[in-house]
Amino acid sequence: MKPIYQFLTIMAGGLLLTVTGCNKKLEERPYTVFSPEYFKTPAGLQNAVNALYSGMRYNYGPEGAVAIAVCGTDEYTYAEQPRNGAGGTQDFLTLGNYTLDFANGAILTPWNRSYSNINLANAIVQYAPEVPISEDQRKVIQGEARFLRAAYYLLLVQQFGAVPVDLGNGDLVFNETAFQGFNRLPVADVLVKDYNVIIEDLTFASENLPDKRPTNAFKLSKSAALHLLSKAYLSRAYSAAKQPSDFTNAYNTAMELINNQAFYGVALQQNYADVHRPGNDYNAEILYAVERIPGNNNANEVGNPNSIGGGMKGIDANNDFVGDYTSVRAPEASSTTQPISARTVQYGRPIRRFCPTPWLYNVAFADKTNDSRYDGTFRTVYIASVTGGGFTANVDTAFIMAKTNRIADSLNGISPAGPKLKPYRVIAPREFYLIGGSIDPVVTRNMYPSLSKYEDPNKLAANDQGGRPFVVSKLSEVYLIAAEAALGDNHPADAVGLINVLKQRAAYRPGLSESEVTARYNAIRVNDVSQITLDFILDERTRELCGESMRWPDLAVRGKLIERVKAYNPDGAAGIKDFHVLRPIPKGQLDAVADMNKTQYQNAGY
């Protein structure tokens, strides 16, 4: 086996994207040779940068990438399909119950797909000074390359800890030849190097990228760099490589963006539900997303949109969080009518990879009235897809998922409130497929609140992977980073106003009067600085960022993974151990190392 981080892109055809058209979205243009001499041409340098953008598709959207970011946390556990071992999902099961080892396939997603891109970024930074382009173009290209190199490194460090900066030819030097070493030792020193590289790259990017991103494309800008730089400082502040100024720098960097939103072209959406609304993918709150073009599988580099997993570039997240809405009978359990017996493009393929924990539903989103973020995160209303049994396709409500048992009982005529009020099935929370819940296998088999953030009505078929841009960073998270940094920097009072900006937005719903919004805000706002704790901020991160491929590293980096999984995730509680805050170095990497003492490179516990 060749070393995992050999420069693979030289030999990889069909992976490059070029910038075309007035909106500068990425569209596929294959190249079969990608040599160092090609880097030294304007076209070669630009195509190399585009390949870095494209490579991020492996890390945001596919099943393996989603699994390592959400499964086995306080938010999500493995759902029915992994539980039954269907569809080759053993990797997700072991991620969720913490029996994973170094052969787990899901952890290969960031490992195999990041090093070739890091090496490519090294080449761009190394050769850019030799390319005959303007200095302004050179600064932007280097800014893009250095942002993306930092992003690839941060993904690796948050999962695996220290990872090599020297890929065979020296620190951050482009390597063309096979290398069978593994420059990970001493781990403490390498981790310091990792964070130094990440922060230096992002500092350069924040100074040299364009002030604003294009209106209808996710080319990088200073706002994305400031977000990731503040996040990198915060991450290092919790690590063994921490510096005394990390929390201060995280706060100041985040506040630079918050205080100058017009300059950077960013703004919060008024309505939380609009942030991830299909058709609104380029709104000003989203700082950076991994570009895709809805309905264009070729441009999205998806050869078979019906396939699942396999480390490809499609958005499996569109289907991974979806419960089995096709099995719900209505209006009663004894009915044979299944008004959504046919899958729909809107709701996606009910593949049932990940489902919410009871904590997520019952605690994090306990207030589903005053706080709009529950409704802006999950689908709870389903329309019939077939006609028959008293239902008309695309017109009638098939069923709803009630927010409380009391509401469900009232609408179903079970409570003293009176007769059944609705002709469709109303599913009570006690019927949801949640750990420890009493599940009615006939009525609500494997049904639970499904994440709606990745729904894609422009897919070509119900079973297809999604094709919308995949959100990586949002302005709302910058507020959360600033609040957390204020706490870490011993001025938590500054966090109150930052959190309340998001609470104010969460209280808003279209159609409410100003007084109604104010009343709801007063019910959920932070009233006292004593409320500002790390656990409170983590809870708020869930409400704002649920399911967005960051929860596992959020908890692991902050030293909260073990505590919160034991408290809130019954599937993971029994198996999780202290060493699980890092993933194992993959077996393939260790097999490729020309060193008999391979165990010295492995993370403790594996």
Mean pLDDT: 91
| Tally of alpha and pi helices | 22
| Portion in strands | 5-15%
- Our Rg estimate from Cα atoms comes to 24 Å
This entry's quaternary arrangement is single chain
Strand order of the largest sheet: 7-8-9
Question: What composes the largest sheet?
Answer: 3 strands, mixed
Amount of helix: 25-40%
The counted number of beta strands is: 11
Unreliable runs, pLDDT <50, ≥5 residues? 1-24, 28-32
Structural class: mainly alpha
Gross morphology is globular
Describe the structure.
The chain is mainly alpha-helical and 606 residues long. It is 39% helix and 6% strand. The chain is built from 22 helices and eleven strands. A three-stranded mixed beta sheet has the order 7-8-9.
Outline:
The chain contains 22 helices and eleven strands. It is mainly alpha-helical.
Which features would summarize this protein structure in a list?
about 600 residues, mainly alpha, two-stranded antiparallel ribbon, disordered N terminus
What is the topological layout?
Layout: E1 17-19, E2 26-28, H1 36-39, H2 42-55, H3 63-70, E3 76-78, H4 80-83, H5 90-97, H6 108-127, H7 135-160, H8 187-208, H9 222-237, H10 246-259, H11 261-264, E4 286-290, H12 317-320, E5 354-356, H13 358-364, E6 378-379, E7 381-383, E8 397-401, H14 405-411, E9 425-427, E10 450-451, E11 470-474, H15 475-488, H16 493-507, H17 514-524, H18 534-545, H19 551-557, H20 561-568, H21 570-573, H22 587-592
Parallel strand pairs: 8-9
Antiparallel strand pairs: 1-2, 3-5, 4-11, 6-10, 7-8
